[in-house]
Amino acid sequence: MKTIDAFILFTEPEQAVKTVEELRQSDSVNKIWLLTPEGITAKIKGCKNITIDSLQSSTTVRQIAQKASAPRTLIYQKATVLKPGYFALERMTRIAEDSGAGMVYADYWAIKNGMKTNHPVIDYQEGSLRDDFNFGSLLLYDTRALKRAAGRMKHETYRFAGLYDLRLKVSQKHPLEHINEYLYTEIEEDNRASGQKIFDYVDPKNRQLQMEMEQACTQHLKDVGAYLKPTFETIAFDKGDFLHEASVIIPVRNRIRTIKDAISSVLMQKTSFPFNLIVVDNHSTDGTTEAIDDFKEDTRLLHLIPGRDDLGIGGCWNMGVHHPQCGKFAVQLDSDDVYNGEDTLQKIVDAFYAQNCAMVVGTYQMTNFDMEMIPPGIIDHREWTPDNGRNNALRINGLGAPRAFYTPVLREIKVPNTSYGEDYALGLNISRRYQIGRIYDILYLCRRWEENSDASLDIVKMNSHNLYKDRIRTWELQARKRMKIK
């Protein structure tokens, strides 16, 4: 039975011909449509053409919805050859029918630099709102679900956010089902390390794209009852009795090459208030402990070694924040990195009072180990606006650095005992009630080097990180829905 209408990009005739040949090997494929950019002439026997402005536009989504007539609609998003596995399309169709999914997607094989490797993807969940969620390039939609979702997009004019908006709208009514099987092969064209890819969303050249994605996500939050208006609780900053106005907290384990630079950049700070530095040394074994002891003559430094061995970065933060000598404001510094100038701490504390916020996020500059600027350069997270930052935070993958917190609020919430995503979880939780302040001066030099924790991750680790952050978003989404009900 011909159950699938397929829509594929046509950019190179050889690529398109081979993909069409592959698709025609399946008895499930009905019609094949060539999505052809303006100015390109496409002609493959038995295929029909649709002229598009871009694959990602809402206009293209509406055109696909109009033309699709089979029960299932297949969209292949890449301009390279697709090679479905043996009976792969039939398998996707079967799972779609059995699960009642609005869309199914699968694990795949990726050919990268001539090498074929497995590329698992992760399960979709309610909080999987990232616009860069990796479904792979092959998507099989229930045509009725696609048409209904596209019908609710009639006023959108997105050039970049059309497919993103489509899957959000489909997910409101139907599950998006992950098939944990390797069902096709594609060619991987982006060979950058994971540590480079994760900053695409803050690249200034992608600003228009990001604005469209924010608009689509914000509307989705309104549709599902999780949107928060820009109204915030006021903070009096009068809780607790603190000996210090601020404490810089550095969790560290085995950073002998960088810890002295980090400590020195804190102790050089010039402020109008008393501050200290709390270094939580998580059982280092490479000489880091001895390097910290080199600063023991400075009474502002408090060197803590946990009495337990089950702490991640978040657990070390909890130890520092709940120490009696922690100041009114707890300020982050990673052990790899340094403050940019002598006035960083003063600017951060001033921002708390000026913006009446429970958390402050600064601007940082990416550098190599020698502090020389590297792409993407300055990361200012200008997508965080006072009006919509707390909503857009559910879409993006981070909130910026350095981060600082009003200590009583942080002690109440507590930091997740993980070594990835703990700061993001805090930002989402805090933004639920309080304003997050922003500083657009460069406060921080963030070093990327071969031993940096997220410089280059394998697919298993990257999937683990993304799955956890999506879970954090799911919990936050659920909490915000409950707020709206109360």
**Number of separate helices:** 15
Task: Report the top-level CATH class of the largest domain.
Answer: Alpha Beta
Q: What is the tally of beta strands? A: 18
* Low-confidence runs: 192-202
Note the beta-strand portion.
15-25%
Helix content: 25-40%
In short:
This protein has 486 residues and is α/β, with parallel strands linked by helices. It is built from 15 helices and 18 strands.
Structure description:
This protein is an alpha/beta fold and 486 residues long. 33% of the residues lie in helices and 24% in strands. The protein has 15 helices and 18 strands. Strands 1, 2, 3, 4, 5, 6, 7, 8 and 9 form a nine-stranded mixed sheet that branches. Strands 10, 11, 12, 13, 14, 15, 16, 17 and 18 form a nine-stranded mixed sheet that branches. The chain is elongated.
Observed structural traits:
nine-stranded mixed β-sheet, 2 domains, elongated, single chain, Spore Coat Polysaccharide Biosynthesis Protein SpsA, Chain A, alpha/beta, 486 residues, 24% strand
Describe the protein's topology.
Elements lengths: L3 E6 L3 H11 L5 E9 L10 E5 L5 H10 L4 E5 L6 E2 L3 H12 L3 E10 L2 E5 L18 E5 H9 L10 H12 L2 E12 L6 H4 L9 H18 L21 E7 L6 H9 L7 E7 L6 H6 L7 E4 L8 H9 L7 E4 L5 E2 L4 H12 L3 E9 L5 E7 L9 H4 L10 E4 H7 L8 H10 L4 E12 L11 H27 L1
Parallel strand pairs: 1-2, 1-4, 2-3, 6-9, 10-11, 10-13, 11-12, 15-18
Antiparallel strand pairs: 4-8, 5-9, 6-7, 6-8, 13-17, 14-18, 15-16, 15-17
Helix pairs in contact: 2-4, 2-5, 4-5, 5-7, 14-15
